[in-house]
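Below is how a single chain appears once it has passed through the pipeline. First comes the sequence as given, then the structure the pipeline wrote out for it. We keep one example in the README because the format questions we get most often are answered faster by looking than by reading.
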Amino acid sequence: MMRYDSKADAQILRKKAEKFHKKQLPKTWSILSEADSLKLIQELEVHQIELEMQNEELVLAKEQAVIATDRYIELYDFAPAVYITLSSTGQISRITQRGSKLLGKERTKLFYFDFESFVTTETKHVFKEFFKRIFESGMHETCDVALITSDNSPLYVQIDGIISENGKQCYMSLLEITERILAERALVIANKELAFQNQEKEKRAQELAEANKVLAMHIVEKEKRAAELIIANKELAYQNQEKEKRAAELIIANKELAFQNEEKEKRAAELIIANKELAFQNREKEKRAQELILINEELSKHIEEKERGR
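Resulting structure:
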């Protein structure tokens, strides 16, 4: 580690002061009185003491700055976070131990190495745009990229970067976000699956709605048919009642017809008897008529005989 030599620095400062003192001496120095000379010498000695004290403070400040710088370098190198300094061309100029561990290479082998070569092809354009914005805007920028690992496992980092004061370097801090990215991707997949399920549910809901409409239409048709069937049943019941009424009337009519038939048969039988009686009477009448004819003939003969006997 580099150290400053305080004695050598004091001598250099003394020579510069003496040189400056000679230039500033007044031309009337030789004509000053002894008292003025003593007074001036005294002031110069006091001023010299002040300069020496200031020089000692300056040397002490330099030593403290060196110590602070050493401590800063040590803290930087062994910081638990990942810090990387890149040149304006993207080469690694400084990196912490944790950074070298993250990239999977020794620190000494990483210097002047292009950081972009550790970025995956899929996210390389993201880093290029981020690095370009850093030097163009001079503002704080951030991006998420994936890094190439020795075992090809996914390693995602969030990079926060800002340009140095002289505009020639880029200071970056890296935060591993692999779990977050994987969780986000799992969430995206879950959301897609959920969206697919919702689409399927909506599709099923639409199909169910259509089926319900068809079912409702069938129910309306069934209710219509039921109403028609009720009316038909009422009509059939009425017709059955009418049929039963007609049947009862028919039974009564049949009974009346049977009675009438019986009466007719009875009248027919009586008529037969009456006809037989009439035939018998007619025969008797004929017989009586024959007998009467015979009697009349005999009577006529008798009358003729009587007339002849006169």
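The CA atoms of residues 96 and 187 lie 33 Å apart.

See the next section for the split statistics.
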